[in-house]
Amino acid sequence: MTAISEISLAIEQEFLALPDWEQRTRRLLDFGRQLPDMDSILKVEDNRVTGCQSQVWIAGGYDAAAGIVRLQAASDALIVRGLIALLLRLYSDQPPDTILAHSPDVFERIGLSTSLSPSRANGLYLMVKRIRELAAREGGS
């Protein structure tokens, strides 16, 4: 398991190596295209992130044997799928306490939080909140 701080640094380096926001947005869209499909049985109201501009679902389960939270997510908007891909890269398959201890400040460091529209930035906040809730429920302290 790779530490969140290492993953965060890798994301930061990857995005800051791109010269402008047009290319960074394209990369985000590429991540969205590569996001694995979420099992349709998980696209239920309990897993829906309310308040997002687009449809977003985030489901998680605690793997007690490994001591980690496994996350799945989906959206009907490609750019949001890209954001989800980054969030899953950062937080999925991590221990609950580790998830709760690390904020997604990498999004600020790469300028993403200020480059998103206010509604998308709010959606990102709501997705992080949902992941943190799942981590707390699934075994975090």
Observed structural traits:
two-stranded antiparallel ribbon, 141 residues, mainly alpha
Characterise the protein shown here.
This protein has about 140 residues and is mostly helical. The chain contains seven helices and two strands. It has a two-stranded antiparallel sheet with strand order 1-2. It is globular and about 40 Å long. The two termini are about 20 Å apart. The mean pLDDT is about 90.
Task: Summarize the entry for a quick read.
With 141 residues, the protein is mainly alpha-helical. It contains seven helices and two strands, in the order H-H-E-E-H-H-H-H-H.
Overall shape? globular
Which percent band covers the strand fraction? 5-15%
Span between N and C termini? 20 Å
Main β-sheet, in a few words? 2 strands, antiparallel
Gyration radius, rounded = 14 Å
Level of helix content?
40-55%
Report the count of strand segments: 2
User: Helical region count?
Assistant: 7
Order of helices and strands: HHEEHHHHH
**Low-confidence runs of at least 5 consecutive residues:** none
On the 0 to 100 scale, the average pLDDT is: 92
Strand order, biggest sheet? 1-2
Structural class: mainly alpha
What does the oligomeric state look like here? single chain
Strand-helix topology:
Elements: H1 4-16, H2 21-34, E1 56-63, E2 68-75, H3 78-91, H4 96-101, H5 106-109, H6 112-115, H7 118-137
Antiparallel strand pairs: 1-2
